[in-house]
Write a structure and sequence with these properties.
Length: 192
């Protein structure tokens, strides 16, 4: 398997983390790589907030939701919370549109780069924009697009097949199983 395939396969969403901090310089490196991502009309309206301080991490944690398919409170386990966050914001002075596609591109780029450095994480779209903006004093010029929860992995994830069209992830014996559709189920047509 190519290194790139291995990286993508091993870069799973992780929601339990070790009690180990991430260097702020590494978080800056993760953001630096996004400067070279594609951007609609090259507007580059996405900007970032680094949260890497326990008090502010707690404020973010209190306003995000993990793993909606699992029973409430399953993840993270006590003391396994994410250790840092990158908040992807859209500068609405540059672009009024939410540019969610741009946010997805930078999010996966950051996650793959992070995983290549041994750092894991989870994209979080389920968060209270109002509370996070207020807790972090984010100006009205910025809309929050996505939260990236980061840390050093403290759980096992295995890819499994989708059965009976059931795409819900589940946990068994502390392993998080993530069903993925077969190739034949995602290619609609081939004009060869
Ligand atoms: C745009 C986006 C938003 C997401 N929001 C959340 C979220 O709010 N909470 C969460 O626990 N996981 C969230 N996830 C992670 C997905 O649940 C995860 O990608 C999915 O279960 C597949 O697992 P995998 O990333 O390991 O392939 C989000 C993923 C994406 C791409």
């Amino acid at each position: 398997m190519l290194d790139f395939e291995k990286l993508v396969l091993s870069s799973r969403s992780i929601r339990n983390f070790k009690d180990k901090t991430i260097d702020t310089d590494i978080l800056k490196k993760l953001i630096n790589i996004t400067r070279f991502c594609p951007s609609s009309a090259n507007l580059q309206s996405l900007k970032y907030i680094i949260v890497n301080n326990p008090i502010f991490c707690q404020k973010v944690f209190d306003n995000i939701k993990f793993a909606g398919y699992l029973p409430n409170g399953t993840v993270p386990k006590p003391n396994c919370e994410s250790r840092a966050y990158i908040i992807i914001c859209n500068d609405n002075k540059i672009s009024k549109n939410p540019l969610l596609i741009d946010a997805g591109i930078v999010a996966q780029t950051i996650m793959l780069y992070a995983n290549s450095l041994g750092i894991s994480g989870c994209m979080v779209g389920s968060f209270s924009e109002k509370n996070i903006k207020s807790a972090l004093n984010i100006k009205d010029d910025y809309d929050t697009a996505l939260v990236l929860a980061l840390g050093y992995k403290n759980e096992d994830v295995e890819i499994t097949d989708v059965n009976n069209n059931d795409i819900k992830y589940y946990r068994d014996n502390n392993i998080h199983y993530i069903p993925k559709r077969e190739l034949g189920d995602i290619i609609i047509d081939v004009f060869d």
